[in-house]
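ingest -> validate -> predict -> emit
validate: passed (alphabet ok, no gaps, 296 aa)
predict: started
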Amino acid sequence: MSSIEKFKGTGVALVTPFDKNGDIDFKSLENVINHVINGGVEYVVALGTTGETPVLSSEEKSAIVRHTVKVVKKRVSVVVGIGGNSTHEVVHTLKSFDLAGVDAILSVSPYYNKPNQAGIFQHYKMVAEASPLPVIVYNVPGRTSSNITAETTLKLAREVKNIIAVKEASGNIDQMMQIIKHKPKDFLMISGDDLITLPIIASGGDGVISVIANAFPKEFSEMTRQALKGNYDTARKLHYILDEFTRLIFADGNPAGVKCVLTMMKIAPPFVRLPLVQVNAQVEKALVAEYAAYKK
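emit:
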């Protein structure tokens, strides 16, 4: 399998389970990993946004990656999130972090300092040169306050050999279609938004890094596979099984919503770390009702 083929389909942005005292619940992390692998996903992503990475210490990040690699046992590929708003710090982390058993890096665009497109390009060029593994660019303007334009993404795809894909969470379908239309054949356009994964694949996209697949890996990964095969009637049916769930898990913040569902499934507890809090009573009630309807 080529270096990019393993990242087609469904990747899961893994939650980081915590116990009631706020410590990492490694047993529940093992439950989640086995749940998603048994559900048929193609790869897992540790230390992403859904993993509450900003509130993890460097020691905790290392422990999570080591545990993830150990539990996965090479059954699927492993991607690790390493990014930040300091290029030199990201480069230092890439050179010092234990990446044994990891297959690729997911690196979020610099946040807060709002670089222009030239700065974003130079940032990723330096990151890719420092990375011993293939790099997936992560564009999420809603969190970073800056967008990676289609032009910059395509320039990275063409000129920086070690960059193999973009996770696009801009919500701008026109921008995504421009990337799909003009990208090199050996570059992947990965959806970063569960709800628009189906139309992105229909436009020529290559898959998704998903949140909802933490809870519903079987249905969501099968939807993605069927769409990639062009079986859109089947894919649509699976999409609409989970569309309301997907809206609800984001209604009061990620990953509180999907952790609420994982608790109903007895896979992992609902706890998050401040400044995040658990979902409000109204959203929890709606999720409980949706889950009851799903089980019928």
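The mean pLDDT is 97.
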